[in-house]
């Protein structure tokens, strides 16, 4: 009888026999193991990275060359732009010069007709030039004014009060103006001195609108600094010209360069007298004439017909006779230029003032 333990041992030997055989074979067999390149692939990642670095460096070089080329192109374009801009500027200046040339020639022509300039006040806002006038029967002064701003000229009331009056010199000093000329006519009443007929201040009617009568006219400046004037039958008619300021007197001397008929009364009453005239030129410059005379009895000063001839000779377009006689006043650069026939300046209700 075979014992169970022996059976178990035999079974274990039989089960282990293959493994023992393999172990003995491995120990006795000397083999060389060759690792195939396919088993251990090449470090392609490192080589790819190096290749990418080289390509990136090449791209950077190309980008740098492109940047340099772009920079050079930009510099070239900037140089070309600056040159073109400079040429355009020269063309613009030349065009502006050519545009202004007719104005310069025209101004030179009318200035020459007035004679030699005896005084000039100039700024960005205004150019005021003073001339002496010498005619066969009278002497006087001309003030040519080029306005460059709306606030370069305005009309003021005497002491800034309706019914009050002051001399032109007083108004000039009070407003610190560079020049002043007497404005419209006046009427006295109840110890007051009132502007005659339609008067406009700062676009407002002082004392209301009065239709033109007995050859009275209104003259002043519009909102765009142009001389406006004439006879007006309705306020709407005058409003259409957008008056900024102005006064009234008689008569109109020139219209569009043509002499108008002088009313019979004003041909002889007085025949000669100190005079003040406001006129304009084609380029909207203003001309003021202030004529001297030693009295108002008709024996000194100028006739209105003589002034028409003189104004046409000077090249004026429209012209209006302002209050004259002892009212004629011309202040320039702080001094009284004319010789007032009263022996002193007359106190007046309205004045044209000029500012630097």
Automatic annotation (TrEMBL):
The chain crosses the membrane at residues 12-31. Residues 175-355 form the Phosphodiester glycosidase domain. The keyword Acetylation does not apply. GO terms for molecular function: hydrolase activity, acting on glycosyl bonds. The keyword Heme does not apply. Keywords: Glycosidase, Hydrolase, Membrane, Transmembrane, Transmembrane helix. PANTHER family: N-ACETYLGLUCOSAMINE-1-PHOSPHODIESTER ALPHA-N-ACETYLGLUCOSAMINIDASE. This is Phosphodiester glycosidase family protein. It comes from Paenibacillus terricola. The lineage of its organism: Bacteria, Bacillati, Bacillota, Bacilli, Bacillales.
């Amino acid at each position: 009888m075979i014992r169970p333990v022996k059976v178990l041992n035999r079974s274990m030997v039989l089960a282990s026999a293959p493994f023992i055989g393999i172990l003995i074979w491995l120990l006795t067999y000397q083999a060389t193991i060759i690792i195939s390149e396919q088993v251990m692939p090449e470090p392609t990642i490192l080589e790819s990275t190096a290749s990418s670095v080289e390509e990136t460096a090449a791209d950077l070089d190309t980008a740098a060359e492109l940047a340099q080329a772009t920079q050079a192109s930009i510099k070239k374009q900037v140089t070309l732009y600056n040159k073109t801009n400079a040429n355009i500027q020269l063309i613009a200046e030349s065009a502006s010069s050519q545009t202004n040339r007719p104005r310069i020639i025209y101004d030179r022509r009318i200035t020459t007709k007035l004679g030699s300039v005896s005084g000039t006040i100039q700024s960005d806002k205004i150019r005021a030039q003073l001339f002496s006038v010498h005619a066969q029967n009278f002497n006087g002064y001309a003030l040519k004014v080029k306005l460059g701003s709306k606030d370069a000229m305005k009309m003021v009331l005497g002491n800034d009060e309706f019914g009050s009056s002051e001399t032109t010199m007083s108004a000039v000093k009070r407003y610190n103006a560079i020049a002043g000329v007497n404005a419209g006519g006046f009427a006295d009443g109840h110890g007051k001195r009132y502007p005659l007929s339609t008067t406009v201040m700062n676009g407002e009617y002082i004392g209301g609108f009065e239709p033109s009568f007995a050859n009275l006219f209104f003259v002043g400046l519009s909102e765009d600094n142009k001389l406006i004037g004439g006879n007006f039958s309705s306020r709407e008619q005058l409003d259409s010209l957008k008056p900024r300021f102005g006064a009234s007197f008689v008569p109109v001397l020139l219209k569009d360069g043509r002499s108008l008929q002088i009313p019979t009364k004003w041909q002889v009453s007085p025949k000669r007298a100190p005079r003040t005239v406001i006129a304009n030129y084609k380029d909207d410059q203003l001309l003021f004439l202030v004529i001297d005379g030693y009295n108002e009895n008709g024996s000194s000063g100028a006739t209105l017909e003589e002034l028409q001839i003189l104004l046409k000779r000077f090249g004026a377009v429209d012209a209006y006779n302002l209050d004259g006689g002892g009212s004629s006043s011309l202040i320039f650069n702080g001094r009284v230029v004319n010789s007032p026939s009263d022996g002193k300046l007359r106190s007046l209700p309205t004045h044209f003032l000029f500012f630097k």
